[in-house]
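Lab notebook, bench 4. The sequencing result for the construct came back, and we need a structural model before the next group meeting so we can plan mutations. Quick request posted to the team channel:

Model the 3D structure of this chain.
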Amino acid sequence: MAVLKEKRLAYFAGNMSLVIAGLLSLLLQGPTNLYAQDEAFDLLARLTLEDLLNVEIAAAGKKVQKVRDIPASVVVLSKQDIKNKGYRNMVQLIKGISGYYIVEHGHFFDQPIGVRGFLGQEGTGVKILINGLDTVFSFNNQYSLDNLSIPVEAVERVEVVRGPMSVIYGSGAFFGVINIITRKDVADDINSIASVRYGTDNEQSVYVGFDAGGVIGDGLKLNVSVNARREQSQGPSYNFDRFVSDLDAYEASDFQFPGLDALNTDGRLGFENNYVDVSVTAGKLTFSYYGANTNREYYAARATAAGVPSTYRTGAEHWAIAYNDTVLDGMDYQIVYGVHEFDDQQRIRGAVNDIKQWSFDVVKDSNEYLEINVNYDISDNLAASFGLSYHDTTYYNQFWDYNWAALFNSHEFTNYEREFVPDDHVATSSFYSQFDYKISDSLRVVAGGRFERLGKYQVLVKTYADGFLELEDVVPEGIISRPTSTQGNDDDAFKFTGRLAAIWHINDLHSLKFLVGEATNIIGPSARSEATGGLENEEILTYEIAYTGSWAENFSLNVNLFHNQLDNLVARIIEQQDDGSFVANTTNAGRVDATGLELGSIYLPSSTLKVEASLTYQDVQDRRPGFSNIDQSYSPELLGYFDISYSVTDNMRIGGVIRHVGEMEAQWDGAPEAISSDVVGEPNLLEQGGRIGKTRDAYTLLDVNVSFDMEVGVNSLSTMLAISNVFDKKYNYPTPNLNTWADKGWPGEERRIDLSLMYNF
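Done. Here's the predicted structure in token form:
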């Protein structure tokens, strides 16, 4: 962890996060009601199954709606749900959502989310919000739960909307939206929370939260919510035989072999995370902010040299001011102005023939946006939503400083830089509308559309060498310029995205939804600059039938049948050259279809016992020529989930989660264009290429937890012991395309034990 002692990003979310939350807690401390905070937000855990259909969420339509009336399939996790399952971070939480899975690859933007049979390795596909704020990294339109490090202790509930949501949210809501809500609405009260956690790999976490609400002045309602967390870990210790099948062959064939003394990670894959969010509502105005930074050690396209890990440091900040008001009877509107920034720094280190290699990679982007959303109940049977959005990426710069050492007894210092041409920027503008018509008490129809326009822009790609030094005679030869190029977007036409839904409430206990929706994913500046030609935006068309019903007072069932058609999928291929350098090329890869069935159920046999189970089957077919007989990469056919939580006493709970992930394949290395044109019929890639890694077997994991609550005067203390992967199952994720040397894939998390204490006062 020595590397993490370097100078950190100058973000407000860093060392100041805990100080601010702590000071607010001390300054505004006041009497509290025992468990007052839990009572308001743990209601979901106590609702009847019929009531669950009427739970209201905001993620699906930028307005409050009942789950039964939302034209999408929805999952809601309450604060108590999260506690009962013993989750310690958001990544673990996402793994527990029906139909979702995560493939770790030990690189930057680790732990991308897979859903409905498709995994966006670059962190695309699912839009992630914090209290409604978009967490996108605009330089490549990516998302990363890992880099946001949101503390689960702060989460009040998580709203998961599955299916295309671009009509409401625009680009990025490809497979759905996850809205993580940490803001707490407290009336005439003050609550404070402090928690600590310690676990395997010397993982330590400290969290503080503060909430206050009341009336000031002439009746102005005020609500303040602050959350802050700091965590760090020395990282796991994996032997290299978990990564590589044949160490002798690896040493003989890979000129980047790190040396026998580096064949164990031995605490060199540590991390440090800082996070803070603030929400202040005063009357009709709401100020929201989150800031996060992550310092993480990782493997970057090569095994780490002994004692010298590669590192990345990311920082993200987002603040917004929203004004909410009502202008007419049945009409309300919201105006939001916000700014978000992203900063990423990578130090890639390795060694060849005992000579150190390094490179330095910096990415920065700055953005501002304006949104106007209006909801209007036109009549008892007709409601409309419409809005305008303007998003501007005002700054983008990406700079590499590569030093390829020990190549042919020479050092070459090669620089690459990408930035907008002078006075250029990326402007995305859109407007949308959606109408909800109630034909009868049991039948309603929802139709909507969005027109979205990506403005023209150009990214200047510069490549130059700033020195070529012979080891025997170190004499700089000055700057060797290489040709520059420009890539970007030349198509600024408005593109339409639509949705149509019919919702049939068979009765108060059963609902059936027929859904058709489209979504787009606009390709970011970084990916466009790597393309050899123009890139089309990714598109998806989804057909879905969703059923929700309560078959008994204590048993509910959800069934979703879906078919996705994904087109213009973007593939980023990174190839290692003979001289050891890496070349990235981004292109539209073609079309993939996915058909699947999602089953979920909740059973409440008593007031103290809750059982949840889900099963997801997904069949993915690659429609590109030559790929019809090749299984989709990083796509398990079967996902299973079983959870049980039991209240032993009023103060003690135990829980267990069983999670199954089916067999997965690594990326296929072989493309139709590599096959000669004289081949008759569809090319057979099974004879032309191969996987970059081995097939990874299915795995089933068991997690257990036990929690105990006790009163301490007028306050409360909660203790939790959580054990993940109880039987220490050894499993690997498929080989990632950025660490192809690991033919056995990336090791999954081994058994870990965490103990946490939370004090409410």
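Residues 16-27 form the longest helix (12 residues).
Will bring this to the meeting.
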